[in-house]
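Quick entry, no commentary yet.
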Amino acid sequence: MLVHPTIDLLYALGLHGMAKGFKELEQSPEARSLEHAEWLGLLLEYESTLRQQKRFDARTRAARMRYQARLEDVDYRAPRGLDRALFLKLASNDWIRKHRNCLITGKTGCGKTWLACALGDKACRDNFSVLYQRLSRLLAALALAHGDGRYAKLLRGLARVDVLILDDWGPELLTADQRRDLLEIVEDRYSARSLIITSQLPIKQWYDTIGNPTLADAILDRIVHNAYRIELGGETLRPRINDEETTPSAP
């Protein structure tokens, strides 16, 4: 069999998964007894798997998440009040398909950002686009975009993302421009895309940080009414993590 020309042709056609599979099957004694259709089926599986992995890698790079977190690594034993049943329900991503939101609140160090990134990672694996942003930095970027003509383009980019993670809401009072920018973001996503928001503040205090009663009503109505809530308690996980000489990406 002309193995090398076949592999070269597969690479030339951009079928890198099939080329890899072809080489592995050629080296497997068990594969020699396979029928042609079985060979072809296995090669197509190699190609499909490789393409799925490439799409996932591209989505995770674009997401720019703070932590490389996975749902399988969530620690439900930590005394912080994490509802396992609810979190596993969120893992199905039906809430994204229904354009609902997820709000994660709790003290510093209880793992809010890590859990948000874990949900973002699962969304990427299920073929949803994700973008992680610290809210303060996003609002600063929008302020600059007002002056250099990029504002509309930046908003359009945010609106296209299936899951937008806004990390660390509050505690600073929003300015008038920031309130309007935040309203634009949530208005574009209302009943169309999903948000994950983390905050040290209880949700009932978000109204005060927005500052303007009319805009606060408009913003929170679009965020809160259809949202799942994860309210974490307990002590910070960071000392335990440091004592065990692990990274803060696995609480």
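second:
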Amino acid sequence: MKRILLKVAYDGTNYYGWQKQPDVTTIEGTINETLSQILKEDISIIGASRTDAGVHALCNIAVFDADSKIPPEKIAFALNRKLPRDIVIQESKEVPMDFHPRDSKSIKTYEYAILNTKLPLPTKRLYTYHVHKDINLDDMRKAAKYLVGTHDYKSFCLAKTQVLSTVRTVYSITIDKNDDIIKFTFKGNGFLYNMVRCIVGTLLYVGRGVYPPEHVKVILEKKDRQEAGPNAPARGLTLANIEYINQEELLLKENI
């Protein structure tokens, strides 16, 4: 028995998210089905991040156990010949049997893209959120500083989330503009369901003058989802990277 790691990239437009669900097409379900056909055994992958419907990924991590004699590094090529073109396995390799993609310490990077033009562009419609109004980047950057660190992010996640704790550590939030694209980059030890999209929606309220930057601190302290802005649409969100780190590196990161 071997444990195989997959680095997965996908366009989430046509999928109901990562996690396998009955009667709908998902990333996990599609990979499970394809792997099972190739390896001639029942395969269930475990993913690091359960991205939502319409969310994209450049690097999600998944593992599975199998008795296959196919060299681990060749599994990516076998999968890519049979998977839909909007899912591509970037890498496959053997990892220790005790490696778990969700339990191992990591830094996750999410990016959110906004097209800030008067009119939308059809070639950007699947990967950006179009906002035609003027956006004050400096105010959003001031507001974002309140959200960096270790906090209870209950105001910025699904109201009925079932996790044991809503405390997370966000290492950095950067906001840059290149031509007409505004890109938010979030790095943290983990993110709650809808957390990044809710933060982006709230920062956009700041950028458009609905909230002053310091109001984000009040929202954070309220621990009430009703206090924050709306979720930004899923299509602008991409899971850009997952970096696994040791405990010493983690302590250095969290000393912020």
